[in-house]
């Protein structure tokens, strides 16, 4: 059996049914827990954890998250396309990092005209 998402071979008995697709365990878990950039519960738990740890600003971020934050800080605002190009990141990776920055209330998306810019919170 082949996983419908990652196309890897799934060992017998380890496939999961997800809306009619056969998925391996990893893809199934990822499908059940998609990144949720706008989840208020995730935001409050992320900020609460940071407060508990006494983290402010970019404390506790990974190097790439800090670099994205600094880039936006320097430019004032940036589009996703710009960040993908500047950091040579796949789009999904940027979304993942942006979700964390957003959870920590450091970076947010704002719409101007028909373009979305990422700016500091
Ligand atoms: Zn898979």
UniProtKB/TrEMBL annotation:
It comes from the Bacteria. It comes from Desulfofundulus thermobenzoicus. SUPFAM superfamilies: Winged helix' DNA-binding domain. Gene3D superfamilies: Winged helix-like DNA-binding domain superfamily/Winged helix DNA-binding domain. This is Uncharacterized protein.
């Amino acid at each position: 059996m082949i996983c419908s998402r990652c196309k890897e071979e799934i060992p017998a008995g380890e496939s999961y049914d997800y809306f009619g697709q056969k998925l391996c365990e990893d893809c199934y878990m990822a499908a059940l827990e998609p990144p949720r950039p706008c989840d208020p519960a995730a935001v409050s738990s992320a900020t609460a954890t940071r407060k508990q740890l006494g983290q402010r600003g970019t404390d506790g971020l990974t190097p790439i998250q800090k670099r994205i934050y600094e880039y936006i800080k320097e430019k004032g605002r940036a589009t996703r396309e710009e960040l993908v190009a500047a950091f040579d990141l796949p789009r999904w990776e940027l979304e993942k990092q942006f979700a964390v920055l957003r959870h920590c209330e450091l970076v947010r998306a704002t719409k101007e005209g028909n373009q979305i810019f990422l700016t500091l919170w």
